[in-house]
Amino acid sequence: MPKAPASTKLRPVTVAEAAAEEVRRKIMSGEYPEGFQLKQDALAADMGVSRIPIREALVQLEGEGLVRIVPHKGAVVSELSISEIAELFELRGLLEPRLLRMSVPRLTQADFAELDSIIAEYRRELEAQHLARWGELNTRLHDLLLSKAEQPRTMAIVDSLLQQTDRYTRLQLSLSAESIKQAEDEHQEMVRLCKAGDVRGASALLKRHIDHACEELKAFILSRRRLSA
Asked: Per the CATH hierarchy, to which homologous superfamily does domain 82-228 belong?
């Protein structure tokens, strides 16, 4: 007798999450261009909801880097700078692989256990669509991979770069299911290569990982600007 298919439990979507998804869709499509003011009253009337879930949605989108909350003006669609993205990710692509090559030989079993734990938590948050945590977990994973390089000044620069690219990282991951899957696969493969002691392979993959995020973001911004032109 064939087994009944396993049931799939869907997480209930709140009004705020549904509102965030709709505003996110319009930002991604270019319907809401960069600098566009997102008025809570107008959004609430358009979606037929109160201002409370709209306010929650805008805070969520601010955490994703799509929206900025400006004093005395409210929420506006973030302006994304291609030149800033290029500079920040290029610096990361230069410094992080260098630190990884120095760190890998000193990573311990305890470090790898923590890395596995971060990847497992990252997967859970991706499945739950908790975008606000993606950047945090991404930073934790990169930090730990590089932590044994014993280069405190370079590490301080990289930490600053990770903070500055956090909004871009979350945006890049939210672009498509393929982006999410590729990032997850690359993280897992990077940790596997490090465990195997393949320093060159891990460093090369880290460079490709950073370069891919940069190119995907630049392509998205150019596409959105063409749509809103």
From this structure: GntR ligand-binding domain-like (1.20.120.530)
